[in-house]
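Problem statement: downstream parser choked on a complex file, so we are re-checking the raw output for the 6-O-phosphono-beta-D-fructofuranose run. The parser issue turned out to be on our end (a line-ending mismatch), but while we're here, posting the original submission so the record is complete.
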Amino acid sequence: MAFASLPNGVGLINLGQSHLHKELNECFNVKCLRFGTSKKRLTRDRPSSSIVVRAVAPNSDIDFSDPDWKQRYQEEFEKRFSLPHLRDVFDLTPIPTTFFLKNRGSQVVEDASSTEEKKYGYVNDDDRALLRKELLSVNPDQITELYGLNEGNSCLVQSFGYFMSCIFSKERNVIKFSSPTSAGAECIDPNCSWVEQWVHRAGPRQQIYFEPGKVKAGILTCGGLCPGLNDVIRQLHTRSKKSINFAEVPAKFVDFEIVLTLEIYGVKNIVGIPYGYRGFFDKGLHEVPLSRQVVQNINLSGGSLLGVSRGNGEVSDIVDSIQARRIDMLFILGGNGTHAGANAIHEECRKRKLKICVVGVPKTIDNDILLMDKTFGFDTAVEEAQRAINSAYIEAHSAYHGIGLVKLMGRNSGFIAMHATLSSGQIDVCLIPEVPFKLDGPYGLLKHLEHLIENKGSAVVCVAEGAGQDLLEKSNARDLSGNVVFGDIGVHIQQKIKKHFKEINVHADVKYIDPTYMIRAVRANASDAILCTVLGQNAVHGAFAGFSGITVGICNTHYVYLPIPEVISSARSVDPNSRMWHRCMTSTGQPDFL
Ligand SMILES: Nc1ncnc2c1ncn2[C@@H]1O[C@H](COP(=O)(O)OP(=O)(O)OP(=O)(O)O)[C@@H](O)[C@H]1O
Ligand SMILES: O=P(O)(O)OC[C@H]1O[C@](O)(CO)[C@@H](O)[C@@H]1O
Ligand SMILES: [Mg+2]
């Protein structure tokens, strides 16, 4: 069983292991995470929360002696991951789609789909993608055998690279954990049996639930900034160099790419909601009409041209505003908090019997959304973080007894710090929220730095902002969204290092770099930009397909739709028993600090 230990010693149990019955009730970092007896799933308590996140364990009370337990598990899993649909509430007859893959010129051509397109161009509602990201560790001979390459498989062995990518696209790339104690093992039963877990495939459907000409679509971005927001909502173009006055933006002044997909369907009425949810309840802010004029390169800059914000509005006020604006589709780009809000809006729309589709697009540099391979902005943030690390390294190595210290974002999750450490190869110590550490004592960080200075002459430390919060004075301060405001672990460590080396009378030249906002205010790199484009398009397809209360994502290399509660029931975090964290420690050569 792979428990991820948290700074306060709370066990964070991996998804798929909640049959291990244990009750915990602790506050972890920003949020209070509860592991209840009845639900047996980590949920997040938000004192100011207006919604309760659904928390259904697929494998609650599984009787493994029942020969049919796998089937039961899969049935429950299928139920959990079924997508809320307008049909659940309304008696609707779908119409043929207006989204065509072929014969599209500058104009949207009505019913121009070819027979071939009808056959192959769309995703079926029953299509599924295998959720679990699994790794294959067998040699090519075994692959040939395993995948029946000699039996008409379309993967032709042209080159090893092609061969591997072809194989890996077959959705059968699984790892068999022989034991729950294997690194990173996520097992359901004590024998680690393989149980397939399928989720819904994203993409355009042949039948749609809205007449595009009558649709009004809204887009908003909420939470902190993230590289790629403008790519998802690509491309916003201003003819003026001046910043946008959201109270007065002429139609066709701005142009977004989510808009492009909407317009390909034939939607003409598209608006941007300024500054996240605030745009719905702040009377001084007005929606921004968006159009499809071909405009350039706004995705070349970071930030969000719609603006972002934190802070709670009443869900009922927001839905009043959505209703008054007659919005039919709402696309919401944001992190965990924003998605909780999106789900609350979706639920409220259902309660009021409004035919509105709410579709989320997960945005977070922290990469802390459950189940997803990665979220957009993360890669870019890691890439940018390396620049800071490189500067810290150069400073440290150029100074006599230099110690470089870099603090990176990562509120609950150390993915940015871990990946930046792995990619830079210049870090001696990586500290993340998921792994507790001590500063003092024979096994503490300070002693290790002494050792590095003595033996290497310099050292570089990378610390995630949420790491070591137990070493700081507790603060009750919260930001507008209710997130706990952390103490500055970077400054704390810097001071402790200086004090320590002074006390032992050894010279140390400490250089502290805090690139916090620099790593998220940049434009998306190529891989994030592609991810953004695909997610943006799929969000639009999802709404036209009639799904609401869903989000889009990439899971196990496939693009999928997921019900929102499933991805926000807790923050995704680094598993200290994973191979990746082990690799990180191997790369730095750091000890445990405990
Ligand atoms: N449980 C909730 N129910 C309803 N709305 C929420 C909830 N949690 C957060 N929100 C709203 O979502 C918005 C964004 O939340 P938050 O500031 O936590 O950012 P986020 O989406 O998690 O992004 P980031 O990854 O940058 O933190 C805020 O306006 C907040 O009011
Ligand atoms: O200072 P702001 O804008 O509230 O954002 C800071 C937070 O944003 C994030 O990047 C994303 O949640 C966190 O890592 C960080 O704590
Ligand atoms: Mg958040």
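For whoever reads this later: Residues 224, 335, 364-366, 409-411, 465, 479, 520 surround 6-O-phosphono-beta-D-fructofuranose (ligand 2) (CB under 6 Å).
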